[in-house]
């Protein structure tokens, strides 16, 4: 799979947004990229 640092680098390069959250034992990552 993709590592978190790699995902961060790709999103930064593309001018996007990353949000991470952990609640009730679930880890989520939300990624928004411009079209």
Characterize this entry briefly.
This protein has 35 residues and is an alpha+beta fold. The protein has one domain (1-35). The protein contains one helix and two strands.
Throw out a few tags for this protein.
35 residues; alpha+beta; 1 helix; GHKL domain-containing protein
Written overview of the protein:
The chain has 35 residues and is of the alpha+beta class. It has one domain. It is built from one helix and two strands. It has one helix at 4-14, and strands at residues 17-23, 26-32. The protein has a two-stranded antiparallel ribbon with strand order 1-2. β1 (17-23) and β2 (26-32) form a beta hairpin. It is globular, with a radius of gyration of 11 Å.
Order of helices and strands: HEE
Tell me the domain tally.
Answer: 1
| Helical proportion, percent range | 25-40%
Which strand order does the major sheet show?
A: 1-2
Radius of gyration over alpha carbons? 11 Å
Our estimate of the beta-strand percent is: 35-45%
pLDDT average, as an integer?
94
- Determine the number of helices (DSSP H or I, runs of at least 4 residues): 1
- 3D shape: globular
Number of strands: 2
Spans of at least 5 consecutive residues whose pLDDT stays below 50 are none
N- to C-terminal distance: 24 Å
- Structural class estimated from helices and strands: alpha+beta
How many strands, what sense, and barrel or not for the largest sheet? Answer: 2 strands, antiparallel
Would you spell out the secondary-structure blueprint of this structure?
Layout: H1 4-14, E1 17-23, E2 26-32
Antiparallel strand pairs: 1-2
